[in-house]
């Protein structure tokens, strides 16, 4: 039950904690998702990202590019080079395949937007690095509160 594997948005609320709502990319597929997002919460999402060693990130970021369009307006993503992170995984997860906590590096193009007004919104995410490409179209329904 990984939101990155979600084909339609039914896992959008999976694992959401804290004061930021995260939207998932894909493992390279093209998907269309519908998601209900709470009002008053900023939204963050990757255009394209990777977890690995510093050299993996350097190679990945050399050709990383992407775009995000929210309600017809282009957004400007932030670029994150190899950044130290702690990852906690469960056995069988698609990222590490095994459980436990470990240190690694993360990199990618990310966007964070302020809380959206209640109602319906559209978000298109496109990202790529080398032959890896992400394409996600979201319909976001922001609850009234």
Describe the structure.
The protein is mainly β. The chain has one helix spanning 54-62; strands at 21-22, 30-37, 43-52, 65-70, 73-75, 78-89, 100-113, 119-129, 132-142. β8 and β9 (132-142) form a beta hairpin.
Topology:
Elements: E1 21-22, E2 30-37, E3 43-52, H1 54-62, E4 65-70, E5 73-75, E6 78-89, E7 100-113, E8 119-129, E9 132-142
Parallel strand pairs: 1-3, 2-9
Antiparallel strand pairs: 3-7, 4-5, 4-8, 6-7, 8-9
Instruction: State the helix count.
Output: 1
What is the rounded Rg?
Answer: 15 Å
Helix content: under 10%
**In the CATH hierarchy, what is the class?**
Mainly Beta
Strand order in space, largest sheet? 2-9-8-4-5
List the domain count as a whole number: 1
Poorly predicted spans: none
Secondary-structure element order, N to C: EEEHEEEEEE
* N-to-C CA distance: 27 Å
Overall mean pLDDT score?
92
Shape: globular
Oligomer: single chain
Strand runs, count: 9
Largest sheet: 5 strands, mixed
Structural class: mainly beta
Just name the CATH architecture. Answer: Sandwich
Residue share in β-strands? over 45%
Q: What is the third-level CATH name, the topology? A: Immunoglobulin-like
Give a nutshell description of this structure.
This protein has 145 residues and is mainly beta. Helices cover 6% and strands 53% of the residues.
Considering the chains and any ligands shown, give keywords for the structure:
145 residues; mainly beta; Immunoglobulin-like; 5-stranded mixed β-sheet; 4-stranded mixed β-sheet; 6% helix
